[in-house]
Design brief:
Strand content: 5-15%
Helix content: 40-55%
Largest sheet: 3 strands, parallel
Shape: globular
Distance between the termini: 26 Å
Number of strands: 3
Order of helices and strands: HHEHEHE
Radius of gyration: 13 Å
Strand order of the largest sheet: 1-2-3
């Protein structure tokens, strides 16, 4: 089973069930940037660990492309204190345990 694809699908379903009208999915950060080149988003949810472009790089690139009203949320299974510090510097919303 492709774990990342499964989690992405479940996450998309949760957002749809919460009432988000349109939920776009990307397999990696490069694909996400391609989507952002074509469409404005209100909320970008990302993992830190992704192939081709990690979540931190995605947020930095997306902040330059997106409206100032776009919110960024990081969801990840594991994160170091160093990454937490860098994310707080680029003002990404975080939840960690």
């Amino acid at each position: 089973m492709d774990y990342a694809s499964f989690v992405r699908g479940i996450s998309a379903k949760i957002f749809r069930d919460m009432g988000f009208a349109e939920v776009l999915e990307a397999e990696n950060g490069v694909q996400a940037i391609s989507i952002l080149n074509k469409q404005e988003v209100d909320l970008l949810v990302t993992d830190i660990q992704m192939p081709e472009m990690n979540g931190e790089e995605l947020i930095k690139s997306a902040k330059a492309m997106c409206s100032s009203d776009t919110s960024f949320v990081v969801i990840t299974g594991g994160i170091s204190d160093d990454i937490l510090k860098r994310l707080s510097q680029i003002e990404a919303h975080q939840h960690h345990e």
